[in-house]
Design goal:
By secondary structure, this protein is α+β, with helices and mostly antiparallel strands. The chain has helices spanning 121-124, 133-140, 152-178, 196-207, 215-222, 226-237, 241-258, 263-269, 275-286, 290-293, and strands spanning 4-5, 11-12, 18-19, 23-24, 40-47, 52-56, 62-66, 71-75, 78-82, 86-90, 96-100, 104-111, 127-130, 185-187.
C-alpha cells in the first residue's frame, strides 16, 4: 500500500505568508491496534522535515524506523537518534514524541507481544536496533492499511493481512531478539530517582553542546568531582562520558545540518576545531558523512 503523505493544516496571513504548524497528532494508532488475531501491525506515512509527532503513549510496544530520512524519538529518559536502517524500540506505556530531522518515510510497527526476548530491559527501556536485511524485509512486507473503512474489499484485504501477520510474527520476534543494539541516544538520569548532580551536568551540556569544557569543568559546576561524574555516567546511564558527549553532539548537529548550515559551521558550533575531525566522528557514528544530511530540512 503506498505511503501516506502528511497533510498539515495551513493558515495564510494577510500578506500571503503561509504558516505550517510543526506538530501533528499521534497518527491514529487506534486504527492499527494489535491483538491475538493480528499480532503485528504496520503503518507508513511520509512526514516533512521539522514535523513533530505530539507526545503520546499506548498499551502496546512499537518499533519505529524510517526508510529514508532521520528521526528522533524522545521520552522522559532522553532522546534517541534513528537514521535509516536502524529502528527505535519503545516499550508499552512509555510516553514518546517523534521529531523529523529530514523528510522521512516513517514506518511504525505495533506488536501484541510485550517483548521479543525474556530480557526485562525490553519492557523498561527504549532501544536502538540494527535492521538487518531479513528483519527489514519482514517489516516492509506487512500490510499498512488501517482497520477502516469497512466493506467487501477491506474484508478481503484484512483476511489476507491476518494470514500473513500470523505467519510473520514468530520470525519477526526472533529477529528482533537477535538484532544488534546500537548506542544512538542521549539518555538522562531519572528525574525522580537519578543523581541530581548528574542530571544538572547533562542538562548544562545539552544547553551549550558546543562549549569547550572537559568533564572536570562540567562536574565542578554541577557540584561533583570528575571521578564521581565519570562513575555516575557509567552507573546511571550505562555510558562513558565520552560516549554520552558524542551522542549529545550528534543530537545537536543533525538539525543544524538539516537546516542547511555548512558543515564547517556545524563543526564549530559543536566545539570542533576542524571540520575534518567532526566529519570523522560523524561518519563513524552515523555511517554517512554530515554532507549527506545537509539541507534535508529546507
Amino acid at each position: 500500500m503506498p505511503a501516506e503523505t502528511a497533510v498539515r493544516p495551513r493558515r495564510t496571513a494577510a500578506r500571503g505568508v503561509t504558516f505550517i504548524p510543526p506538530e501533528v497528532d499521534s497518527l491514529t494508532p487506534h486504527l492499527y491496534r494489535p491483538n491475538a488475531e493480528r499480532p503485528v501491525r504496520a503503518k507508513r506515512r511520509v512526514l516533512l522535515a521539522a514535523t513533530v509527532v505530539s507526545p503520546h503513549s499506548h498499551a502496546w510496544p512499537q518499533l519505529t524506523f524510517s526508510s529514508h530520512g532521520v528521526i528522533r524519538v524522545t521520552t522522559a529518559r532522553g532522546t534517541i537518534i534513528v537514521p535509516p536502517l536502524r529502528a527505535a524500540w519503545v516499550p508499552a506505556g512509555v510516553e514518546h514524541s517523534i521529531d523529523v530531522v529530514e523528510d522521512a518515510e516513517l514506518n511504525t510497527i505495533y506488536l501484541h507481544d510485550p517483548r521479543p526476548s525474556p530480557d526485562p530491559s525490553w519492557t523498561r527501556h527504549c532501544l536502538v536496533l540494527e535492521l538487518g536485511p531479513l528483519l527489514h524485509a519482514l517489516l516492509m512486507s506487512l500490510d499498512t492499511g488501517p482497520d477502516q473503512p469497512a466493506g467487501p474489499a477491506t474484508e478481503l484485504r484484512l483476511a489476507d493481512a491476518r494470514r500473513h501477520e500470523t505467519l510473520v510474527a514468530p520470525l519477526l520476534q526472533a529477529e528482533l531478539a537477535r538484532a544488534p543494539q546500537v548506542r544512538m541516544g542521549v539518555p538522562l538520569p531519572d528525574a525522580e530517582r537519578g543523581d541530581k548532580r548528574l542530571r544538572s551536568l547533562c542538562q548544562a551540556v545539552l544547553r551549550a553542546p558546543g562549549r569547550s569544557a572537559n568533564l572536570a569543568q562540567w562536574a565542578a559546576e554541577a557540584g561533583a568531582s570528575e571521578r564521581t561524574a565519570a562513575r555516575l555516567f557509567r552507573s546511571e546511564l550505562g555510558l562513558s562520558w565520552q560516549q554520552w558527549r558524542q551522542q549529545a553532539l550528534l543530537a545537536h548537529a543533525l538539525p543544524l545540518l538539516a537546516r542547511g548550515m555548512p558543515v564547517a559551521h556545524v563543526a564549530a558550533a559543536s566545539g570542533y576545531a576542524s571540520d575534518s575531525a567532526f566529519t570523522a566522528m560523524f561518519r563513524s557514528a552515523m555511517g554517512r558523512s554530515p554532507r549527506h544530511f545537509r539541507g534535508a530540512g529546507r
